[in-house]
């Protein structure tokens, strides 16, 4: 068992590092882009949403508030989109060797997770510049990221196994993500939503995750699932994630035996 | 003292079916259409009840024609496919090389690729660190390890991939047609490595079309045909069986197409056995009967039968003068019986027509092909080389007396 473990670790490590080495091939700044990309994205968003469309009026530290949302959402998009096509994309491996299939999906999720970590570093720097005081509550971002990672990976397992059979999945998922971007309080604040509808937004796990992240990093005026729902219903987003993760995992496990012949 | 060998791979009643949708349901529209139309999926049986055991230390060959199911069998053993029914028991670590250099990335350095490929083959970092120097040394690529793979020549890439494969130590190794790639020097290297495996008692499972390789290295082999085991056991016998199987197919297709593309329609040459049945494969020592029929042509004085080895060597040529043979019965048919007393392999018969001035008439006639297989039962092949040569032996004393 220990042997298997170290083998799989080696595979994951090599696949993730390959991913990073290849990503910035032939670029002068190389790995710097992992930091520069979110930095420039933030700069653009900052200008747009503070000077051109000031959606963030009345929210403390709106730029950091916005960036936190964007970073969490981008991770979800990146890891599920790449995860969905990961099995088909690595068909060359799947058809020829017997590596555990879940490693392929996991490696793409891990690559995205590393990017998220780098982006969060930029967010923290922004936060300090913006006058947000670092507090111990920043550490609570870790369990939130764990939750987000489980959600994204469960979704990736489900999508990647479906994608082997139905190549429409990535298109459908892209549309879902587009809709999700506006259904989730990322660029706008939940405060601008009529109070009676607010709780419905939290049936979407991404809303719960992003609002919690904002609460622990930016401002405790951020509306969270805990602050507006005072019953067991507050656990619905977690239930959604659990169902997707378990269903995704089981479906993936059942289909993975046939990936080699179905791709 | 019966010392029962330990088994490395046990395959029990293995079945594999593939589902072949008429149109692959790749989009929802197609799926919907197919559901509505109730398209029946076609299942294709690729393996139909295969059982065998590979013992530890065996050099085990899997042979069969294209589409026989041998690659599927290999992928099942390697764990890439899941059996439809039956089971595979594997005792010990197994490293399959269905393709060399799996996962090689052109944008990575040679060093990174070694670790990547090694990890995918099932070795952890520590094991790879231990093997790394040996791999690089064997590939003779020490100066190139920090260059990107895309700057390697294709030969260098193959060398690197192969070095990883052969330095990878595991209890059971699987190779699929490895010898089919690479130049002569590379194949030579493969052969050396196989020799070493054999000497060390390494368990190897090998899929190949090359019967020379099977005869040379394998102690056991299995012949797969249409998803079933046609023959299993001694590698010599199985490889001969495979060769005969192939020759049958060639003979059949030749009969079907009425010989080859000869412009000369006045001749037919067929290869028969002693029962006058068309035959393409002969065991050493059997009689090969060549039958030549021709249309009457006053110019023809004699025929020359030339037998070439497929590799090009001219084995022999002999002539048949019509007046001496056929003038009595005037059947316009000549029979030549030849005992198959030459080396195992494939042969090709060519026939020429000569006129009375010994000039060749028309084109050379491209005749039948046949093959000679070894005959272990009779032990016919007590000589080596292409043909046995007549020789007289004396004791040294007698010679000096004379």
What does this structure look like?
The complex is a heterodimer of chains A (263) and B (402). Chain A has 263 residues and is mainly α. Chain A has twelve helices and no strands. By secondary structure, chain B is of the alpha/beta class. Chain B folds into two domains: 7-244, P-loop containing nucleotide triphosphate hydrolases (Rossmann fold, 3-Layer(aba) Sandwich), CATH 3.40.50.300; 258-373, Immunoglobulin-like. Chain B contains ten helices and 17 strands. Chain B has helices spanning 28-37, 70-78, 110-120, 125-139, 154-167, 184-200, 211-217, 235-256, 322-325, 396-401, and strands at residues 7-20, 42-55, 59-64, 85-90, 94-97, 172-176, 203-207, 220-225, 228-234, 267-272, 281-283, 287-294, 302-309, 314-321, 333-339, 345-354, 360-373. In chain B, the strands form four sheets. A six-stranded mixed β-sheet of chain B has the order 5-6-7-3-8-9, sandwiched between helices. In chain B, strands 11-17-16-13-14 form a five-stranded mixed β-sheet. In chain B, helix 3 crosses helix 4 and helix 4 (125-139) crosses helix 5 (154-167). The longest helix of chain B is centred in the middle third of the chain and has 22 residues, at 235-256. Chain B is globular and about 80 Å long. The interface between A and B is medium-sized, with 30 and 33 residues.
The termini of chain B sit apart by: 55 Å
Q: Give me the secondary-structure category of chain B.
A: alpha/beta
Number of strands of chain A: 0
Largest sheet of chain A: none
What is the number of strand segments of chain B?
A: 17
Helical residues, percent of chain B: 25-40%
Straight-line N-to-C gap of chain A? 29 Å
Which structural class fits the helix and strand makeup of chain A? mainly alpha
Structural Rg of chain A: 19 Å
Looking at the overall shape, the CATH architecture of the largest domain in chain B is: 3-Layer(aba) Sandwich
- Outline of chain A, from the CA principal axes? globular
The structural domain count of chain B equals 2
- Helical stretch count of chain A? 12
């Amino acid at each position: 068992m220990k042997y298997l473990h170290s083998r799989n670790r080696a595979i994951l490590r090599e696949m993730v590092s390959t991913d990073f080495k290849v990503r910035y091939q032939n670029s002068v700044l190389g790995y710097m882009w992992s930091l520069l990309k979110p930095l420039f994205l933030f700069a653009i968003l900052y200008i747009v949403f503070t000077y051109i469309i000031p959606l963030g009026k009345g929210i403390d530290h709106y730029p950091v508030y916005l960036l936190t949302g964007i970073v969490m959402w981008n991770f979800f998009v990146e890891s599920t989109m790449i995860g969905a096509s990961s099995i088909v994309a690595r068909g060359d491996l799947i058809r020829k060797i017997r590596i555990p299939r879940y490693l392929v999906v996991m490696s793409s999720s891990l690559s995205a997770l590393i990017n998220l970590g780098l982006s969060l570093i930029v967010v923290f720097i922004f936060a300090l510049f913006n006058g947000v005081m670092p507090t111990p509550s920043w550490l609570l971002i870790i369990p939130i990221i764990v939750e987000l990672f489980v959600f994204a990976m469960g979704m990736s397992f489900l999508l990647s196994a479906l994608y082997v059979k139905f190549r429409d999945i990535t298109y459908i998922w892209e549309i879902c993500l587009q809709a999700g971007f506006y259904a989730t309080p990322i660029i706008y604040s939940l405060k601008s939503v009529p109070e009676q509808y607010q709780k419905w937004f939290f049936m979407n796990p991404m809303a719960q995750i992003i609002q919690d992240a904002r609460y622990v990093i930016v401002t405790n005026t951020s509306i969270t699932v805990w602050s507006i729902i005072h019953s067991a219903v507050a656990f619905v987003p977690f239930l959604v994630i659990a169902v997707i993760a378990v269903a995704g995992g089981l479906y993936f496990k059942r289909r993975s035996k046939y990936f080699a012949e179905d791709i | 003292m019966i010392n029962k060998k330990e088994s490395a791979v046990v395959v029990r009643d293995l079945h594999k079916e593939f589902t072949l949708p008429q149109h692959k349901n790749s989009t929802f529209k197609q799926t919907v259409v197919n559901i509505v139309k109730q398209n029946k999926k076609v299942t294709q049986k690729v393996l139909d009840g295969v059982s065998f055991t590979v013992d530890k230390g065996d050099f085990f060959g899997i042979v069969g024609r294209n589409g026989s199911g041998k690659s599927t069998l290999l992928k099942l053993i390697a764990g890439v496919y899941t059996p439809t029914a039956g089971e595979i028991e594997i005792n010990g670590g197994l490293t399959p090389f269905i393709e060399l250099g799996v996962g090689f990335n052109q944008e990575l350095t040679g060093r990174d690729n070694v670790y990547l490929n090694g990890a995918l083959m099932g070795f952890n970092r520590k094991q790879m660190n231990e093997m790394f120097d040996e791999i690089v040394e064997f590939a003779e690529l020490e100066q190139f390890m920090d260059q990107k793979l895309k700057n390697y020549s294709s030969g260098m890439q193959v060398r690197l991939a192969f070095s990883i494969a052969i330095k990878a130590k595991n209890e059971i190794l699987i190779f699929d047609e490895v010898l089919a790639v690479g130049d002569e020097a590379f194949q030579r290297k493969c052969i050396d490595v196989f020799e070493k495996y054999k000497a060390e008692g390494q368990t190897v499972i090998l899929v190949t079309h090359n019967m020379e390789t099977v005869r040379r290295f394998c102690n056991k082999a299995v012949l797969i045909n249409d998803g079933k085991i046609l023959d299993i056991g001694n590698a010599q016998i199985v490889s001969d069986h495979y060769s005969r199987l192939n020759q049958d197919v060639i003979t059949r297709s030749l009969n079907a197409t009425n010989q080859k593309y000869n412009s000369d329609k006045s001749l037919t040459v067929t290869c028969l056995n002693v029962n006058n049945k068309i035959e393409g494969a002969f065991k050493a020592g059997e009689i090969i009967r060549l039958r030549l029929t021709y249309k009457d042509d006053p110019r023809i004085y004699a025929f020359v039968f030339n037998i070439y080895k497929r590799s090009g060597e001219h084995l022999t040529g002999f002539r048949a003068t019509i007046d001496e043979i056929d003038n009595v019965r005037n059947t316009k048919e000549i029979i030549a019986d030849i005992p198959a007393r030459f080396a195992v392999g494939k042969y090709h018969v060519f026939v020429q027509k000569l006129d009375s001035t010994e000039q060749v008439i028309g084109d050379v006639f491209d005749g039948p092909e046949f093959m000679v297989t070894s005959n272990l039962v009779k032990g016919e092949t007590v000589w080596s080389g292409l043909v046995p040569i007549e020789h007289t032996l004396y004791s040294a004393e007698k010679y000096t007396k004379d």
